[in-house]
Records
---
Amino acid sequence: MQGYELIKKIEMEKSKHPERVFIKWWRKEEDWLDFDLASRFVETLDYSAKIDGFDLLDINQMWRILEQRCNGRVTKVQKDDGSYVLMYTPPKGAEMEERMPEYPYSPETLLMILDAETDNNFVD
């Protein structure tokens, strides 16, 4: 899939499942996956890029991927007000913009931690 065809399919899926804010996408010739916010992916897509497949994920699905990948270095904690935060210990040498004792439980934070864990190179 390329360009307009890909955007059309993504937008159709997003309209059916608005809670799915992440995109997991891949190309066959390269043995890797990539994850992004679906909205950012659509905004920055190079229309000449060939994408062989994608799935849209909700925050709970992305959390499970991250939790499995981190091997115990991340936990989701419910605060007294009912909101969630993430407690995360990055691996040695991980590049992160900011290290904090706790992080908000948000789509952006999940991607930031996944990038730190995989050195921006997720391999399934």
---
Amino acid sequence: MSIASASTSVKFHEFPSGNVLHNYQPGPQIDGPIRSISWSKDGNWLALVPYSGLAEIISIKEQLKLIHTIQNIEDPSCASFQNTTKKNIAIGTKSGQVFVYDIKARNIKKRFPRTTSGVTHVEFTSKDNHVVAACENGEAYLYSHVQNTLSGSFKIPRSQSISALRTNPIKRNYVVAGSNEGVVAVWDIHGNKNKFFIGSHKAPVTAVAFSPVNSDLVVSTGFDRQFCFYDIGANKCIGNIFVENSMTAVDFSPDGKFVVMGSQKGKIYVYDMKNLQQPVYSFFGHNNAVEHLSFRKNEDYETSFMSLEEVKESNLVETHRSTESFNIELVCSEVTSEKTQSLTKPEDSFLAELGLDKNNTVGSNIQDSYQSNKYLMPKYTPTQPSKILQDKLFSNFQTSTPETYDFELNAPLSPIVNLEPKKDCGDNEKVNTDNLAKFIKTTVSDELKAVTEELKNEMKYQTTNTLYQTRQLFLNLMMATVKESIKVENQFNSLREELLSDVPQSQYLLEENSMLKQKIALLEEEISLLKHN
């Protein structure tokens, strides 16, 4: 597995060691950082746009060499290969033009409508149905690759610029972008609307990327010395990690297990998605800021990052990775406090979850509430007992009996360590055997205690999680009941208002009848008086 990094030159590194396989300097001289890089479908070609000059295509299949310089397009600013074929490449220019270039025929295949300002980023969607072009004025234009027309335009909310742009490799309708105002936004090009946006950075966003195994996971880096992860489905930032240097480039490994970032000082860091507290590997990339990072496509991604001992141990412990959901274990005060508040005070969101000001049904509210809270419980991952026993056996025996036993250091990791006593032990053989038995008994006892404690913790977690889900479902049921009660009450109120609307007219008739009766009574009295007179 290899990765390309770009600054003023392009370097191809072996992953994860960082050893430089190739180094390529475009153009006759160094004018500035490379503007864009893009791998072809088979990973044999790389398209790059230098700071000044013409776009180039280089090959690293057998050896590094320049195979084509695109002469037909002047002042290129960005380029991107198609995802389904290596024959065509999209190129944006500083004058606002967007072309699709046929590499085999060496001519311009399509011309899209000109934009109002220079193009800074260009990307194909996952199935090559559309081309997305970001411009200097902060607008992104969506072109139909089939109909060769402008399908729509987007803009990052509360921003006047676009500093980073990537398309989703899984969902062809998602596009993520970042701005100099620190806002990260995701567009749904099918609905022509903003699906998600958040101002998580306090400085310009330098790079964004989608996870290749989970369409809802996004990472962003910025000049505020932090990188953030987002859950598009939950519509929130799920964690942010602060670093010593500002990160200027980011990309996920093809298997989604690692995220690689380039810093402003030219160093490249490798983070394990299981534990993002510290980088698991780092290596020097360039003398200047790393502008772009991109893993090579269509390679044998079974190459493991783990050492030989870890590979052997991984065969004993079965691990499961889900591509439908993710759980990043972050030690972050913001995320921890958010989870704690959500777990201890779920009733705080009771009125908000009623949805009285929304036109949502009861079923949708219950489903939305469950979806928004299913990631709140922290994931419990027990340690590996075989690793604990292995480390303890080696550490104790290496310090206590170095002259009595020979160790097979290359033996596979397992709860039992292969120990071979020397043949010339003499009278001390029985004593050493007794000591060995006592030591193993003590070690196994400690191991059993550790495993028991972990099982207790796991049971506590499972019990707590079950109780929490039951409580949440009960609250959802209460929400549904209250909402239905309010609906019924509103219906009764409207009916009552309709009935009372006729009351003033009835009251008027009653009063008029009463007055007529009084007049009749007075007239009868007057008539009777006249008769007597």
---
Amino acid sequence: MPLPQTGAPGPELKSPREPRKSQTLPTNTWKSNSMKEQSMHHEDSVKPSLGMLKRTLFRTSLRTSTHKPKEDPGLFRRGSRFLFRSLRRALDEGLTAGHPQGPVVPEKPSRVTDGSSRQAATGMEAEDLEPQAESKSVADLITERQLVKAFEQLRYLETQLVADKTSRTFTQDPTAYARRAMDLCLHYDGMAAEIGAIVREALSSQGVDRDALAELAQVVHLEEEAHQTSQAEGDFLSTPRHWRQHWEDAVRLSARERVQQAGAKVIPGAAEGASDLAQLLAELGGVVRHDLHKVRLEMQPAYEATDLPVWETYLRAFHSAVAQRLQELARDARGCEQLYVLLDWAANVYGSPNFLGAPDLALPTEPLPPLLEPALWARLESDYTSFLETKITSCFDSILQLEQNRWEANEDREVLQGLYHAPLSIDVHMLVAEHVKAAGAISAELETTTLQICARALCLFVPRFEKAFLASKAVSEWYLGAYINACVELRTSLLARFPGTIKELEKPLVAATNSFQKHLLQIAQQDMQETLQEVHRFVVREYLGQVLRPRERFSGLDRVNGSHKMNLDAQAISNTFQGLGSEAKWLDQAILSVAEVLGETYKDDIRRHLETLIQSYPDIRREHILAILALRRLGRRRNQNLLQHTQDLLRAAHAIRPPSHRVLFEEIEVPTSVDVLITCI
């Protein structure tokens, strides 16, 4: 797009003393004016040349400041270096020819006109390159971005100047040659700057100036045809200007500016959060996609008339700019999340074949270089895994805390598919699967490293969990069964899904499973002893119930035989249940004491047997004593004395509350008829 005209005059190939309106002169103006000006004073010749140089530099600086292109600084230095070499050579030729350097007069350069034949770009003779009369200067043509016309006029003047130099026209006036060569140099540099400005504006502006791009492509082609080979050392004229390389440099600079501006307002946080970095990378990807679509759909058609590799050049330029931006972001990335966002964007977003979002966008024939250097990529993965190891350990700490909260809250039991179930297995599976899947999306090496980190953390977690659980008050058959199932699930599923990678995890899981099974067996055994003791108590209780409800009282030999039979039965019951594991030895004395009362031949010792029975079984009641005495024929007086004595013992025994597992006689019912019978004796 042409820039607006400024008030400062641009570099023009005409004398500053010449009026602005007089811009059309015959084609032989240079030669005729040159002959007339040889008689002018040397001082007068220097002043207009310096004035023109100042105006030219001012015009160039104004244009570059307007377009703000960051051009290659070597371009002007190369032009100036060749220019001054050419100056020195011209001066040397003038001195060695034996001609004194007389006063130099300002030679009026012909104003630059357009309309010259395109044959000027092919290196034809000067006499065949006469431009048509035109009022616009080269500077105006460059400003209006009529680059082809400007180049044709410059090429004509360059060819004419070379011809004049070859004919030794400037032997006595090398300064005039230098002035005209300086004009050409500045105008060529101005065109190069304009090429850079056009390239830069093509991406930064909303639309695309296709005419300017077409002019740019054509003038690059014309310059390459016109300046095909380098000239002799020190000869600046007709040397290749390398505008193709300058165009590529401008493309790279433009892409770098666009990439650097993307997400410039987003400052990634230095903490663990990665939302800002993700937003920055999202904006960066959007800018790259938008600009490359613009290159393919709008800019490339304007270059079709030439062989400039537009798509490949822009694609490589953006790739290089993105790589540089990621290197800058990698230096400031902190925390596991930020590092992963960076690696994931490079591997899965930018590295995706669908990144540009258009299947018809062709890739370059040669592969692009890696977005991040292998050493940098390895460092990022190493930093990520270091942060990841700490994070995974923290996650396992959180899982342990959740389980401890469940123990304290005594949550309702959960059964899944008929088995005791705890969320432990699901939490561990989700933790491992999430991080392994995320790492595998970046690289296989990172996936393997993440698996190893998870395995090490889990190997440390399992013993810690086992110790914390067994030390808690939540140990029960339900929790033990649930955690046994969880260990079995982890052992089978993780080892089956990642065979060999986390093989070291099998040992702690097996150890925890065995430990939980051992404690579960102990609880089961304890419950079975309690059940066996209850059966033992039931047998003794039922046996005594049958003894205390006789159909008749014993006497003589029957009483002695009955006592002996009861002793044998008591011993058999005790041996049987002790063999099964019962520890209720306190039940053994009940049948034996009743048998001793029944079989005692010395009646005074019955008092002692009753005392032992009451002390051993505080839950015995008066009706039980009456039922036992009814088994003997002791007489009314003796029975009354024994009942009175045992009544005092029973009152003392009832003051002590018996343990629940020492209840025996309280559950034995005896008929009230016994009390009536004893009272009647």
